[in-house]
Write a structure and sequence with these properties.
Layout: H1 12-49, H2 62-71, E1 74-77, E2 83-87, E3 109-111, H3 125-128, E4 139-141, H4 152-156, E5 164-166, H5 177-180, E6 188-195, H6 200-204, E7 211-216, H7 220-224, E8 235-238, E9 244-245, E10 260-265, E11 286-291, H8 302-307, E12 315-318, H9 323-329, E13 337-339, E14 363-367, H10 373-379, E15 387-391, E16 427-429, H11 437-443, E17 451-453, H12 461-464, E18 475-477, H13 485-494, E19 499-501, H14 518-528
Parallel strand pairs: 2-3, 3-4, 4-5, 5-6, 6-7, 7-8, 9-10, 10-11, 11-12, 12-13, 13-14, 14-15, 15-16, 16-17, 17-18, 18-19
Antiparallel strand pairs: 1-2
Keywords: Membrane, Transmembrane, Transmembrane helix
Protein name: Leucine Rich repeats (2 copies)
Organism: Gimesia fumaroli
Length: about 525
Amino acid sequence: MNVCFCYTPFPYNQFMQSRSRTIVALFAVAALVGGVCFLTMRDNQVEQVVPQAAPLPTPTSQATLIKLKQLGARWKRNQHGQVNWLDLKHLPIADDDLVILQELPEVRFVHLRAIQRAKGNHFTNAGLRHLLCLKKLEALDLSANHHLTSECFETLKQLKGLKSLNLEYTSFAEADLPELCQLKSLEILHVPQLPLNGTTIGYFEQMPLRELWGISNRNSDYTFQFLPRLTHLEKLLFQADVYVKDTDLVYLRHLKKIKTLKVVLTKGFRDTSQLKQLQDLRELEYLSLGQKEVFVDSFDNSGLLALAKLPALKKIEAARVDDRYLEAISHCAQLTELDLTGYGNQITPEGLTCLKNMRSLKSIDLERPLARHKTFEALGQVPSLERIALSGWVWRYRGKSPPPVGNAPLFEMSSLKHLQQMPHLKELKLDYLDLTDEALKHIGECKTLEGLSLINSNITNAGLLQLRDLAHLKNLDLTGSKIDLEAAYQLHQFIPDCVIEDIWFAGGGKMPPFLTDLQEWKTFRRKLHYELD
C-alpha cells in the first residue's frame, strides 16, 4: 500500500512578519495612550502648582483722603497708593478723630507731636487705643503731649511691632518703664530726662535699643558705668544735648556698635589726648567735638591723630576750632563730611589750605566770616567736594570784628570761579552773602549742580537766566530775594524739573497775568510749591 505524504510548507516568515507588525502597532498605541495620559497628568499638576494671582493692593480711597484733608493731616503713599505715613502734629485732634486709622491699615509711621487742646477738643489716652488697629505700625511720635498720663502705656505696650517711640516732653517717668520694656522690638527711644541707674538699666537692656535719647547725666560718673550693658547701642544723646566728657570715654570703650557720639574736651582744644579712648570703637561714624574754655600751655593733638585710625569715621563736627586744631583733623583722610559751624571757631581762610590733604572730603559747612577769596581758593584744591554750605544768617563769633553791613560784599564775586575746579559739586548753599548777578555767572558754570540755595541774595531778574544751563538742577531756593515770579517762570522753561522756592504764594497764589493757560500754571505751581501728596 502506497501511502503518499503531501507536505505543505508553513509560512513562518510571513507569520513572524505579521506578528512583528502587530506588536509594533500595539507598542505604538500604548505609547500614544501613555503620552496622552502623561500630558493630562502634567496639565493637572501644573494647575495644582500654579497658584491664583494675588489680588492687587487696594489704594486708600478718595473718601478717606478727603477726611484726612479735613483734619489738616499730611501724608505719603506707597507704590500701591496706600497711605503709609501720617502726620497729625500740632493739630486740634480729638479722640474720635483717630477713628480714621481703621481705614489706614498700611500706616507704618504716625506723628502726633504737640496735639492742640483747643476749646472743646479732648485728646486723651482713649484716643490712643485707635492705634491698636495699625498692625504694621513701626514708628510713633507722641512728644510734647504733656497731658497724656501713665494710662497710655497700657495701650502702648500692646504695639508689639513698634521700633521707634518718641516720648520727649511727656509725663513719662521711671515708674512707667516696666510697661515700656514689654516692647521687645523697640530700637529707637526718646525719653524725657530719665536717669540711668541700677534700676532703670535693667529695663533698658530688655529692649534691643540702637538709639537712646534724653538720658539725664547729672551724675555722669555714676551714669556711664551702666552704658556697657546696652550692647546694641549705636547712638546716645543726653538731656539738653549734654556732651560726654572726655574723662568718661573710658566707660564707652565696650560699646562696640556705637556710631554717633558727642564729646566735650575738658581741657580745651590744647589737649585731645583722651580721644585715644575711642580707638576701639571701630564702627564710629559721626563725632561731635565741643570744648571748654580752658587755657593750657601745652598742645597735645595725639587724640585727634588717633581718630585717623577709625575706618568707619566719616563725619566730624567741631566747635572752638583754630587753624592748628584743624590741621590735626585734616589727618583724618577717611572723612567725607566736616562741619565747622560750631560756636567760637577761630579758623582763618589761610588755615583751610590743609583741606587739600583730605581727598575723600565730600561735604563741608562753614560760617559767614569765612566768606573770603582765599576760602574759595582753598576749597578749589579739594576736587572731591560735592557739597559746600557757607551761610551767615546767625553770626557766632567772639573776639572778632562783626561782619560787614550795608551793601558792601564780603568778598569779590570772581572768587566763585574756583567752584569750577570741583567736577563733582552737586549742592551749593550761599545764604545771606549779598551775592550779585556776577556771582550767578560763575555759579552757572557749575554744570553738575543739583541743589542751589541763595537766600536773601541781591540777584536780579535779569541775572537769573545765567542759571539756565544747569540742566541737572532739582532745587533752587530764592527766598528773600527780589526775584519776580515771571523771572522764575522763564528760568523754569529752561529747567522744567527744578523746584523753585520762594514766598510767592503768600497772597493766595492766583494765576499771574503773564500766563494764559490754567493747566500750565498748575504744573508750574506744583514745581514751586512742594506738596507731600
